[in-house]
Amino acid sequence: MNFDGFIGPSYTTRGANFDCQRTVNLYLEVDETGKGKSPAALMGTPGLTTLQTLPTSPIRGIWTGLIDNLPGSSGSDLCYVVAGSKLYQITSSGTSYSLIGDVGDDASHSPVQFAVNGTQLVLSSAGNLWVWDNVTLQKPFFNNGTGTVNTAGTAVTLVTGDPFDATQVGSYIRINGVAYQIAAFIDTTHITLGSSAGTQTGKTFYVLTSGTSTPDYVTAAQVAFLDTYFIVIPSGGTKSYYISAPNDALNWSPLDYQRKAAFPDNIASILADHEELWLWGSETTEVHRNTGSADVVFQRDPGAFIHQGIRAPFTACSLANGVAWVGGDVRGNAIAWLSEGYTPRRISTHAVETQWAGYSTLVDAVAFVYTQDGHQFWVISFPTADATWVYDATSGQWHERGWWNGSAQSRVRYAYHGYVFGMHLVGDWQNGKLYSLDPTVYTDAGTAIHRMRTAPHISDEEKWSFYSRFRLANRGGGAPTLAWSDDLGATFNTARAASSRRISSGSTQLSEWRRLGRARDRVFRVEFSDAAQCVITGAYIDMSTGDG
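Now predict its structure.
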């Protein structure tokens, strides 16, 4: 008979005697025609091909896309990667690189976020903000005025930009990267310096806010770009976010900020999505919009307030025409949410939430979204828990992914993603390796991919069931093994190779196990560890049930 329920998602509850299903390195695909051999199948997750190893590590962020004034932007892909403290441009289909410069790192190798306009690549790294414009990699700072000037010794004449004023006397002005103290205010277009700046023409200036010759640099826990403005949440925790000048990540005023206003929790994460700025605190979420006002650029949408916050700041992603995040509120946490308008819909299951609730922390989780073969996957890795969970927005189901280290399953090797050069580029969280994530590759850079499906319980009112045969319909996957549990999923026997296999055109089509004993409650588990394609279309059981 057909084993109903063998094809399914991961669903292990707190009590394994209730449900202990696991789907590892396999994902559910539904037959959209309704005419297939089975309503759904389990497909093998993609493998990894090593493209290159960067000289610094680990990979902390990947950005891909087009920027108007950067090399290769004329219809070609661009790729930037942060590995350790270094920013690299990746070229030649991922197989070569050039070093841009140092953007800093921290002890936890925190994730790097990117934002771009047409001319600038901006990134937050280790609490600092960096701007790359294809000429200079630099940290922006707050200013009380900017523009261009001409200099003649100590005399400075404004050419373009913000006018001078008397309150600037005694502070410092940075001209062409060098700081000078302002000695006297003449008028709105003329000042005198305390030391000579020589003869310079049309040089960029910034009036510093620090009161010293050292700039007050913009800090950034995260960065976004929306409606010509770069937006940062400062490091250290605050209810405010800062807004750059239009299309200029080097121009920041300490007066250009807005606040998360409706609840006292600090901003933990930001995301620009569908012309809206999402702001998460630990307990609540707000959505801000561009008001069109030069004085108050963004304001909270009064109809967009959500009583759910975020627990893992780097899990917020655009997903399935909404926004997804791992969050919670004052009542609890470890729930995955997906926005439907401004109403959060719970997309995690009780089983997934049970697993996450057992993790010692969620705050270090990282996530990305990629689309492959019509599936949109939200990949969430939990470093402390050493686990990876994936939500398939196409099927609405969860599965697990992992890397087999030879004796146990750990989280997948990749934590960051970009689509570039016609492939899914991912980076290793432990070293400087860049990989191609490819469904036609059946190893993780040479390491076997361990795939497993633990099926639902089989029980008929706790009567004895006698199992004469188990058959697995699969294409590829190599030689599967079968194990089972007769103690409600607590322990499993030693896995057995198939008694026989029917092979067609070089691919296993049907694997069979006989004489499987009896049980009042049984859980079957199938495993694969061969470097081969894996598609499971179903399972079949020959069994009979006794009276006692």
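The two ends are 22 Å apart (CA to CA).
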